[in-house]
Amino acid sequence: MRELHLGDKTVPAIGLGTWHMGNSTATRAKEIKAIQAGIDAGATVIDTAEMYGNGRSESLVGEAIANIDREKLFLIDKVLPSNASADRMSHSLDTSLKLLGTDYVDLYLYHWRGAVPLSETVETLQSLQQQGKIKHWGVSNFDLPDMKELLALPGGDQVAANEDLYNLGSRGIEYSLLPWQRKQGIPLIAYTPVAAGDERGQLINNPAVKEVAEAHQATPWQILLAWAIRDGSTLAIPQSGDPKHAVDNIKAASLTLNEDDLAKIDKAFPKPTSKQPLDIR
């Protein structure tokens, strides 16, 4: 199973995303089973955010992991820009911790840039880290200028990861951001790694993706995930409220695409040849 170093732990390269989960009482039990099935299949990373359902996703995760050894899990949570200030972040984190049923998160991300000065946010994140409420901190939806600004700040070089949208249909960060992060040793967390809506359908039904999937006796979904984590420094966090699908996603971490596979995929979905606006959903 492909792994990567995240914070102070080595984790499987495919985790569990929870965006859009926890919003319906009708699907709650199945979604909890999906998270637990993913953990049973080898996933250790669970990604959530206070924004997701205004805490309902965090509550769902908390219920799903209530009887699981906390030390075996790597929890990622995110703070909203409106709560990323010195006077609000601690309270925001405490609320998230209560919903999760834990006294710390492994990685706390600044969800996207807002009006609070970046230096204030970084200083506050460092303070929470010193208090032990978070093991590591990072950012999300940061492009290359944002990352360079971050690393120029005192303590900014302690950033543990950047979470951006990244999938076969959205390769823009490959032009400059991703190569720079690799040089700096900053892992990428890829959200929406199998795309969404009509774009997802275009990816999983693409002849090249289907051909590679058949060669590996895998599903097109699994090929998209194996492609996303191919560099060894990317964590993909697909979301699924279905237990079987969640397990299939985790199994994709055991797939290795060869040069011919990657060439076929690149021909169908070419690499970017110029700087693209950061894709944010």
TrEMBL record:
<feature type="domain" description="NADP-dependent oxidoreductase">
    <location>
        <begin position="13"/>
        <end position="268"/>
    </location>
</feature>
<feature type="active site" description="Proton donor">
    <location>
        <position position="52"/>
    </location>
</feature>
<dbReference type="GO" id="GO:0050580">
    <property type="term" value="F:2,5-didehydrogluconate reductase activity"/>
</dbReference>
<feature type="binding site">
    <location>
        <position position="111"/>
    </location>
    <ligand>
        <name>substrate</name>
    </ligand>
</feature>
<keyword id="KW-0614">Plasmid</keyword>
<dbReference type="InterPro" id="IPR023210">
    <property type="entry name" value="NADP_OxRdtase_dom"/>
</dbReference>
<protein>
    <submittedName>
        <fullName>2,5-diketo-D-gluconic acid reductase B</fullName>
        <ecNumber>1.1.1.274</ecNumber>
        <ecNumber>1.1.1.346</ecNumber>
    </submittedName>
</protein>
<feature type="site" description="Lowers pKa of active site Tyr">
    <location>
        <position position="78"/>
    </location>
</feature>
<dbReference type="InterPro" id="IPR020471">
    <property type="entry name" value="AKR"/>
</dbReference>
<dbReference type="InterPro" id="IPR036812">
    <property type="entry name" value="NAD(P)_OxRdtase_dom_sf"/>
</dbReference>
<dbReference type="Pfam" id="PF00248">
    <property type="entry name" value="Aldo_ket_red"/>
</dbReference>
<keyword id="KW-0560">Oxidoreductase</keyword>
